[in-house]
Design a protein that fits this description.
This is WxL domain-containing protein. The chain has 848 residues and is mainly beta. It has four domains: 2-136 and 145-326 and 390-412, no CATH class; 423-586, Immunoglobulin-like, CATH 2.60.40.740; 591-711, Sandwich (Immunoglobulin-like), CATH 2.60.40; 715-843, Immunoglobulin-like (Sandwich), CATH 2.60.40.
Length: 848
C-alpha cells in the first residue's frame, strides 16, 4: 500500500498541473489614464514644474521586441501622457498597478504556489519622436527633465519602488522597444529562472540580455533595492506550463565583494547596489556581461532557487535621496531635476556622460549643495551599436512599479528641453551699483565671484537676467518669462515700466508695470512674453538681457537676509530657469564715515617720469552717537572715479584704531584694471580724482576730491630772435670785427634737463658773390669760427625743478665786442649779404 501510494502521487500532481494550465491565460489591460491615478499622484502631477508638450516629442507604443517569447509577460505598455500633456506617466500606482490581468484561479488545492495575478506591476516606456526629438549620438547633446519617484513620506520601502531609467538606444524599431518590468525598470532583461519540481535552472546571460532594450545605455534611478538577502522581495513566478514554472529571482541589486568588473567596463563598476531610498547608476542593459549569476539567500519552499542574477552597476550613487529628498529649505520635494550631457570622442569610440541630479529646486532655483549629485562617466559607444557622425537614435524614459504595495507612487517625468533642439543658457546677477559690486547666480560655484554679498540699505541695485541662445535646430520660440523678484528692493516703476529687455540686435522693449503682480506674502512676480524669439534661424538676436532697477531697503534694526528667487523662461520648444543670488541688506547705521584728503592741493605728477607712482593719502574716522572703532582685518573698500572710469580698491584695517590712514596706490589700481595710466593723466593738464570709502557695515563716506597737476617730465626748447644784423661798413675798411647792429639773443627754456647750445652759420652771399669773411663767436677764451662749422657756445648742467628760461646773451655776457660778430678778411664787393644761422639745443654731455 505504501508503495502504491507513493507511485500515485506524481500522477495526481501532473494532472493538477495540466488542469491548471488549461485555466491559464494572458489578458492585457487597456491603456491607463489619469483616472487610474491616486489622488496623491494627481496632486504630484498638478505640482509638476512646467514642461514641454509631451505629445510633440514622445511616442508610446506596445513593445514588439520580445513578442515571440511565450514566457515573457511584459508585452504591454502602461505609460501614458497626462491630461495636461506636460507629464509622462511611465508606471502608475494604486491597486490597479499591474499591466496585465493574468490569473490561474483561486489557487492550488495544495498551497504550494499562489495564484498568478497582477505579478508584473505597472511598467512602461516613452521614446522620443525620431523626427522631432532625435538624439545625435555623434555630436554633443544636452537635455533636461524633472522626475518624480514618490514622496518618501512612507517608511515602507515598497511604497516608492521600482524606479525610472533614462535610456539611449539605437534600434530601427526603437519606438517599440522595452525590457522587463519590476526590477527590470522597463529596460533590463528578464532573468528567467525555470523550475521543474525540485530542480531549477537560470537562463543564460545571453538570453537575459536579449530581452533587454537592445543597443542601449541606461542611467537608472532605482528606488527599490532588489537584494537576495531581503525577505521583502522574494522571487516572482510569472508563468507556468504543463511542466515548468517561470520566475524572476528578483536579485538585480545583490552585492558581492570581490567580483571583478567585466572587461571593457568603465572604472568604478561593481556588482549590485544599495541605498535605503534607492540609488543611481549607469548600466549596459543589452550586454550579457552586465548580468552575473550568484548564490542567493532567500530560498524557501515557495522558491527553490539557490542561484539568481545580479547586475553590474557603473558609478553607483547609493545615497541620492530619490524619494526622501528635501530642498534647500528642508521641504520635501516630489520632483527632482536632471541635466544630462553627452560628449562623444572624435573617433566615436567613447563618450563622456555628465549628469547633474537635483541641480535645481522645483521652483527653478539653482541648487548647488543640498542633495545634489554631479558625475562624469566615460562609456563605450559600441554599446549603442554602429554610431556615425550623423547617427540619429532614440532616447527616452522607462519606468516600473512593484506589485507589492497598493499605494506605490507613480513614476513621472516632465521634460523641459530636447537634445540639440534649442541650446540656451541664462545668467542672473544682482549688481550693487553704489558699490560697483556684482553678485552671481552660482554662489561660490563660479570663478570671479568673490563678493561679500552685502548691500547697504539705500544702495542702488540692478537685476540682470541674460538669456543666450547658443545653437540648435530651431529658434527659441514664444518665450514667456515668470520672474519672482527678490524682496527688500523698492523697484523703479516711475516711467510706468518695471524693466527693459535689450536684445543683441540693438532692439529693446519695455516691460510694463501691468506685468507685475504681488501675492499675499509680498512676493512680486513678473509675467511677460517676449516680443521676439531668440536664435539665428529666423530670429535676428541670440541674446536678450532683462534689466530691472531698484533701491535696497531695510528699515529694521538688524541685517536682513534676502532669499534667492527663481525665474523661469518657458518657450514652446525649450524651458530654462535660474535664480538670483542670495544677499544681505544691512540695517541703517546711526553713525557716519568721514574721509578727508590730507595732501597738498594740487598733487604734482611728473609726466612719464621713470618709475612714477601716484599714491594718494586718505584719512578715515567715524562720527555719530555710537561711533565704532576700526578693528583689525575689517575690510575697507575705496571707490575711485577718474577720467570717466569707476574703480575699486579693497584693503583691510591693519590694527585696532579710532582713526585710519590709508595709502591708495592709484597707478597700480589703474593698471590692474587694464587701463593706460598716462592716457588718464596727459601732459600738462589737471586731472580730478574722487574717492569715497565703504566699511564692513556698508556705510559709505563722503566723497573727497584730489586734483592731480601733471607736469612735464623734462622740458628743453629754445627760441632765437628772427634776424641777426651787422653794422654796415666801407668795403675798403680793414676793420677786423664788425659789431652787431641789433640786440640779437637766443633764449633756452629747460625743466629738469641740463643742456648745450650749438650753432653754425652758412656763407654770407649776395647772389653768386661771397662775402670775404666769416661769422664768429668771440669771448674771453678766444674766437670760434661758426661759418661752415658747428660749435657749442653755451652750456648749463643744472636740472631745474621749475621751468627756467636762460638768455644766452646774458649767460655769455655779450658786449658790443663779444658774442656773435662778423670777422672781415679783406676787400668785398659793396653789397648786402645774407646767410643762415642753425641753432641746435641738446642734452648736456660733460664729455663735450
Amino acid at each position: 500500500m505504501k508503495h502504491l501510494n507513493k507511485s500515485k502521487l506524481p500522477v495526481v500532481f501532473a494532472l493538477l498541473i495540466t488542469s491548471l494550465a488549461m485555466l491559464f491565460k494572458f489578458t492585457q489591460v487597456s491603456a491607463a489614464t489619469d483616472a487610474d491615478l491616486s489622488s496623491a499622484d494627481q496632486a504630484t502631477i498638478n505640482k509638476a514644474p512646467t514642461g514641454l508638450l509631451m505629445s510633440n516629442y514622445f511616442t508610446i507604443k506596445n513593445p514588439t521586441n520580445n513578442s515571440s517569447d511565450s514566457s515573457f509577460r511584459f508585452k504591454s505598455n502602461s505609460a501614458f501622457i497626462s491630461n495636461n500633456d506636460k507629464v509622462l506617466v511611465l508606471a502608475h500606482g494604486t491597486s490597479t498597478n499591474s499591466a496585465d490581468n493574468t490569473a490561474v484561479g483561486p489557487g492550488w488545492p495544495f498551497p504550494i504556489y499562489p495564484a498568478i495575478t497582477n505579478k508584473t506591476g505597472s511598467y512602461g516606456a516613452a521614446w522620443s519622436n525620431i523626427d522631432t526629438a532625435y538624439f545625435e549620438a555623434g555630436k554633443p547633446q544636452t537635455f533636461s527633465a524633472w522626475m518624480s519617484f514618490g514622496s518618501g513620506e512612507s517608511t515602507t520601502e515598497t511604497a516608492n519602488g521600482q524606479g525610472i531609467a533614462l535610456v539611449l538606444q539605437n534600434n530601427p524599431d526603437g519606438s517599440t522597444q522595452m525590457g522587463a518590468g519590476q526590477e527590470g525598470l522597463g529596460v533590463y532583461g528578464y532573468d528567467k529562472s525555470t523550475s521543474k519540481g525540485f530542480s531549477n535552472s537560470l537562463a543564460t546571460t545571453e538570453a537575459v540580455a536579449k530581452t533587454a532594450v537592445q543597443n542601449s545605455i541606461a542611467l537608472e534611478f532605482d528606488t527599490q533595492k532588489q537584494d537576495s538577502a531581503s525577505a521583502l522581495y522574494p522571487p516572482i513566478m510569472y508563468t507556468m506550463d504543463t511542466a515548468y514554472s517561470y520566475y524572476s529571482t528578483n536579485t538585480f541589486d545583490s552585492k558581492r565583494i570581490g567580483v571583478p568588473a567585466p572587461s571593457g567596463f568603465p572604472d568604478d563598476t561593481a556588482l549590485g547596489a544599495g541605498g535605503n531610498y534607492g540609488h543611481i547608476a549607469l548600466t549596459y542593459p543589452s550586454s550579457p556581461a552586465t548580468y552575473y549569476p550568484l548564490g542567493i539567500d532567500n530560498t524557501s519552499f515557495y522558491s527553490p532557487f539557490s542561484e539568481g542574477y545580479s547586475m553590474f552597476h557603473i558609478h553607483r550613487q547609493q545615497s541620492p535621496h530619490l524619494a526622501d529628498g528635501t530642498d534647500s529649505n528642508n521641504n520635501r520635494i516630489g520632483w527632482h531635476h536632471l541635466t544630462f550631457r553627452w560628449m562623444p570622442s572624435a573617433d566615436l569610440k567613447t563618450a563622456v556622460i555628465s549628469y547633474s541630479f537635483n541641480d535645481k529646486d522645483p521652483d527653478g532655483s539653482i541648487n548647488n549643495w543640498v542633495n545634489r549629485i554631479d558625475d562624469n562617466i566615460t562609456v563605450d559607444m559600441s554599446q549603442l551599436g554602429n554610431i556615425t557622425s550623423d547617427s540619429k537614435i532614440y532616447w527616452g524614459f522607462t519606468g516600473a512599479n512593484n506589485n507589492i504595495n497598493p499605494d506605490v507612487a507613480s513614476k513621472l517625468v516632465s521634460v523641459e528641453s530636447i537634445p540639440d533642439l534649442v541650446n540656451a543658457s541664462i545668467d542672473a546677477t544682482v549688481t550693487d551699483k553704489t558699490k560697483n559690486k556684482v553678485m552671481f547666480d552660482d554662489p561660490d560655484g563660479g570663478t570671479g565671484d568673490t563678493t561679500d554679498r552685502k548691500v547697504a540699505s539705500g544702495d542702488k541695485v540692478q537685476l540682470d537676467y541674460k538669456l543666450t541662445y547658443e545653437d540648435g535646430r530651431e529658434d527659441w520660440k514664444d518665450i514667456a518669462s515668470k520672474i519672482i523678484l527678490p524682496k527688500n528692493i523698492n523697484y523703479d516703476t516711475t516711467d510706468g515700466n518695471i524693466g527693459t529687455i535689450k536684445y543683441g540686435n540693438g532692439d529693446s522693449e519695455q516691460i510694463p508695470v501691468s506685468a507685475l503682480s504681488t501675492d499675499s506674502n509680498g512676493l512680486q512676480t513678473i509675467n511677460y512674453t517676449f516680443l521676439q524669439n531668440l536664435g539665428n534661424i529666423s530670429a535676428t538676436s541670440k541674446i536678450a538681457n532683462i534689466i530691472i532697477n531698484g533701491v535696497a531697503v531695510n528699515e529694521t534694526k538688524s541685517d536682513v537676509a534676502v532669499d534667492s528667487q527663481p525665474a523661469t523662461f518657458t518657450g514652446s520648444n525649450n524651458i530654462e530657469s535660474t535664480s538670483t543670488p542670495k544677499f544681505t541688506v544691512l540695517y541703517k547705521k546711526d553713525w557716519t564715515l568721514s574721509l578727508t584728503n590730507p595732501m597738498t592741493d594740487p598733487v604734482t605728477l611728473i609726466y612719464q617720469q621713470d618709475n612714477a607712482t601716484l599714491n594718494l593719502n586718505a584719512n578715515l574716522n567715524y562720527t555719530g552717537k555710537t561711533s565704532p572703532a576700526f578693528a583689525t582685518n575689517d575690510p575697507i573698500q575705496y571707490q575711485i572715479s577718474v577720467g570717466g572710469h569707476d574703480l575699486t580698491y579693497n584693503t583691510t584695517v591693519s590694527a585696532n584704531s579710532d582713526t585710519l590712514s590709508d595709502v591708495i596706490p592709484l597707478r597700480t589700481i589703474i593698471e590692474n584694471a587694464g587701463l593706460d595710466f598716462w592716457s588718464l593723466f596727459p601732459n600738462d593738464e589737471m586731472q580730478k580724482v574722487t574717492i569715497s570709502a565703504i566699511d564692513n557695515d556698508g556705510v559709505t563716506s563722503n566723497t573727497a576730491t584730489y586734483n592731480i597737476q601733471v607736469k612735464t617730465n623734462h622740458l628743453l626748447e629754445m627760441k632765437p630772435d628772427d634776424n641777426l644784423q651787422f653794422k654796415s661798413f666801407n668795403y675798403l675798411s680793414m676793420k677786423e670785427y664788425i659789431q652787431r647792429a641789433n640786440d640779437y639773443d637766443v633764449s633756452v627754456t629747460s625743466y629738469q634737463n641740463p643742456w648745450m647750445l650749438q650753432v653754425s652759420a652758412s656763407e654770407l652771399m649776395n647772389g653768386d658773390t661771397k662775402f670775404n669773411g666769416v661769422i664768429v663767436n668771440k669771448n674771453t677764451q678766444g674766437t670760434t669760427v661758426l661759418t661752415n662749422n658747428s660749435a657749442i657756445i653755451a652750456k648749463d648742467n643744472n636740472s631745474y625743478d621749475t621751468e627756467t628760461t636762460t638768455s644766452i646773451s646774458k649767460l655769455n655776457k655779450w658786449t658790443t665786442d663779444t658774442g656773435l660778430l662778423l670777422k672781415n678778411y679783406g676787400l668785398s664787393s659793396s653789397k648786402k649779404y645774407s646767410g643762415t644761422l642753425t641753432w641746435t639745443i641738446m642734452d648736456y654731455d660733460d664729455s663735450l
